[in-house]
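INTERNAL AUDIT FORM
Audit reference: QA-55
Scope: verify that the stored structure record matches its stored sequence.
Auditor: D.O.
Record contents follow.
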Amino acid sequence: QREFLADASSVQFTRNPDGIVGALKKIGGSEIGSKIKAPKAVEASHMFFSNGGMFNFFLMTHPPLDVRIRAVQKNWDGKFESSEIKPIAADRTTNNEERKSPLDALPGAVILGAVSGIGEGERRRISTGQELHRGVSQRWREAIQDREVAQAVIFGLLLNEDDQFLPKEISFLKEEAGAGAKELALQWQAETRGLHSARKIALVELALPTLRGLSPSEYERFRDITRWLIASDEKVELFEFMIQRVIERHLGSHFERKAFQNICYHQFDRLLPEANILVSTVSEIGAGCAEDAESAYLEATSGWKVRLDRKGVSSHDELDEALDKFAQASPLVKRQILVACVTAAARDGKLSSGEAELLRTIADSIGCPLPPFPGEVVEEEI
């Protein structure tokens, strides 16, 4: 009865019986169908549209599609709608003579994360983990599994390169976390100095699972130290802004039980001012001149119903507000802003450190984490 109840709820909430009926007709009309042919499909058949190999109606875990359709549409003529859905393994090559999109110029992992897979939480995390492991050396992967080392990695990435501020930060770190933590942080600062931001982002990603293993008191100390290091020079760099957002989203929600926000925005047009802030900033960050920034912006916003003036690089407060609103948007709206931002970054076919940091911040803040950049930006292993 679960499927019938779900169908009835769909009609109740959408007030549109043709919606669920149309979807079921297309599924039934697909030449491929949804039959699961795996040897042990029966054991998991309750999770699929398919009958998982069951052939007897009374033993099925799902009622047949025609029964479900007639439960909603009594006068159905029994005909399914033909579907052009292609098999997953179908050839997806395109005509070489077609004009390439600017997205084709950017590393494949970036495009994949920006325009596909939104909502594939567990599958995306597994894929991301595999990519991260391929891009980071075995020595670093093993070291970062230690909680003290994982914290030191973040501290080291945040330590200032300017001698005017570094002594004060080292002194603070020693006082708050101990001499051992200070030495580890300095080691990681030295090892990561000069790395492309994409590589640093990979280390942050790898450190997160270990950091979730901190005790509540350890987390509070870690959070307070990172906040102090970020604010110590009275300015927030883009990379620091990214780390702050990542910590708030991934660790704050874990330790502080912050609730995820409900969907409040279903139409992209309602967030045009916020979208303009994000796309303008991405366009400006990777541009060599104002003309390049304008070209990237125009390309990214070409599909917008209302064209706004490019703003340039926005303040962190403006970015925070824009990201918080897009975090409350529907998956389709999130996809639209990611495509626009990636299009702006892809305009020149190169991914700068600033663009990598900002794309990561935007995607992660709105709940659509990108696959890692390592291996796509530079070839050598860390």
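Auditor finding: record pair retrieved intact. Confidence is low (pLDDT under 50) at residues 39-47, 49-61, 87-114, 374-382.
Action required: none
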